[in-house]
C-alpha cells in the first residue's frame, strides 16, 4: 500500500512542473525518499507550449502578432534511493529545475521579431534521511547545479533607438542545500513533508555585443536561482483512495538575470519577476486493482497583473492532470498528461506596455519508469 501511496502522490507530476511560475520546470520533488527499499526511476516529459501575443504599442499597427514564441522541449529526470539501515536512508536525484526557450520568428512585422533567448539548468542532489521513530524523519543534503544562458534581442525603434543586442554566457556551477522534515502514519496513508531549497548563486562569464559589434563588453553576470519551500501531503480518504496535494512557494521577486550592458542600454533586466509565485495542487488517486491505479489533479497560480519582460510572458496558470500507473512485479510504469491554461500577460519595454499575451496554453506528456530491487 505504501508503494502505491508514494507513486500516486507523484503520479500526476509525471507531466508536472511544465511551465510553472517564473521559469520553474521540475518542482524539485524529493518524493523518492519515501519509496521502500532500493528504488531506481527514470522520467521524461514532452512539453508543447502555445504562446502568442499582439502588440499594443501605438507606434505599431494594433494587433501586430508575435507568432508562437515558445519552443517545444523535453525534460529528463532520474533518481535512486536506498536504505543504509533501519534508521538511515539516502537518495540521489537528477533534474532540470529551471529553463526557458523563447524565439520570435522573422517576417511577422512584430517589434521583437528574430529575438530569441535560452536559459538551461541541470542539478544533481544528494540527500540523507534520518528516521527518528514514531513516524518522524528529517533529511537534508547538497545540490550541485549548472546554469547557462544566451540571448539575441532585437527591438524596432518604436521604443527609442532600435536595439540589436546579443549575450553569450558560459556554463557555471553553483552549490546549494536542501533541508526538510516529514511525518508519516502508514495505517491511514498519511504523510506530510516540508522541504526548503536554498538559492544557488551563479557568477557567469558573459560576452555582450551591441549594434553588431559597435560595443562589446566582457563581464560577469551575477544571479541566483531562487530559494523555495515545498509543503506536500497525502492521506487516505477511503479504501484504496488517496487525496494528495501541495503548496510550493518560490522567491521569484529576488531573481533577476541582468547583464550589465543590457541594463545600461534598456534600463531593465533581461529576465525578472516582480512577485513571488505560489503554486497550489490538489488531487485524488485510486487503486483499481493490484496492477492499475489512476489519478487526477488540478493546479493553480495567481495572475498578478504585473508587467513582464518579453522573454518571459507567463502570468499565472490553471491546470488539470490525468495519469495512470501500471505495476507488475518489481517494475512500475507511470504515464500522465497535463493541460495548462496560462494567465493573460502584458509585457513591457523600458517600462512601457508593449504587448498582450492572451488565451495561451501548454500540453505536457510524461512517462516515468521505476524499478524496485
TrEMBL record:
Which family does the record assign? Belongs to the OmpP1/FadL family.
The record's Gene Ontology cellular component field reads: cell outer membrane
Database matches in PANTHER family: OUTER MEMBRANE PROTEIN NMB0088-RELATED
Which residues are the signal sequence here?
1-20
- What Pfam families does the entry give? Toluene_X (PF03349)
Q: What is this protein called?
A: Long-chain fatty acid protein, putative
Q: Which SUPFAM superfamilies does the entry link to?
A: Porins
Q: Does the keyword Nucleotidyltransferase apply?
A: no
The UniProt keywords, alphabetically, are: Cell outer membrane, Membrane, Signal, Transmembrane, Transmembrane beta strand
Q: Molecular function (GO) terms listed?
A: long-chain fatty acid transporting porin activity
Keyword field contains tRNA processing: no
Origin superkingdom:
Bacteria
